[in-house]
Amino acid sequence: MEQGAVQDFSTLFMLARSATGYRQEDEIARRETAAKVLTSLIQRDGDARHSLIASGSLRSVLALLNPTGPGSAIIQFCMASLLATMVLDDEAMELIREREEVYEELDRRTGAYYKEGEEPEYELYMGVRLAEASSQAMWGSAHYCVQMTPVRSS
User: Fold this and answer.
1) Domain coordinates of the chain in residue numbers?
2) Is 25 exposed, middle or buried (CB count within 10 Å of its CB: 0-12, 13-18, 19+)?
3) Does the pTM of the predicted model rise above 0.90?
């Protein structure tokens, strides 16, 4: 990849979202494959991690942490695994800290949980720390979602 070039992950995010007009098996395959490819790219390529952050696509990752529709469990697991990878990359974490929109998105998602009299900045800081800790906890099994096909009950 050319130095400074930013990759566009929008197609993979679009394919990971739920859509109408597909047979359920096809939708599951499409969504899970897109999420696994995205996770695999981010896990293996530091430039891809930096591009994901630079393009503002972390919002899309956060949106897919609570997916709906067929295949949602694997989508959610892949996005958590992707975040677990980010935590291990010091440069990526520094870029995340520098970009305000990630904090704004976390603030939007956690704003309803502020308690009366608490400082929102402290709550946001704790929210970020919790997200980092949660994603770190996922690291031990992060490879599972891209290496193996889960067993499905009929």
Assistant:
1) 10-140
2) exposed
3) no
